[in-house]
Specification:
Helix content is 87%, strand content 0%. The protein contains four helices and no strands.
Length: 94
């Protein structure tokens, strides 16, 4: 059973890395923020699977914190984007 969990964790890690590489090549800031979310959820899934495979229950706490930090960073990014002036306004002022 542990071998199947480790294999699944490896598969999720590879797919997350490929998706992260694809998203990081983007030019828009919102797409880079999606990379943070992808890393948070994919990394948490890998940690949860490895924790279940090894029997270490404390790894679940680390995985949940990883997802929480990813959610906080997205919230901060969204709030920052909402309060930032439009790009056209900044160009007209200079």
């Amino acid at each position: 059973m542990a071998g199947a969990l480790v294999g699944t964790a490896l598969f999720i890690l590879i797919v997350t890395a490929l998706g992260l590489f694809q998203v990081l090549r983007a030019d828009l800031a919102i797409e880079r923020m999606m990379a943070v979310q992808l890393l948070g959820t994919g990394g948490a899934a890998v940690l949860m699977l490895l924790g279940a495979a090894s029997g270490a229950e404390s790894i679940a706490d680390v995985a949940l914190l990883m997802m929480l930090f990813a959610a906080f960073s997205c919230t901060a990014f969204t709030l920052g984007e909402a309060s930032a002036p439009e790009a056209d306004d900044r160009e007209e002022d200079t």
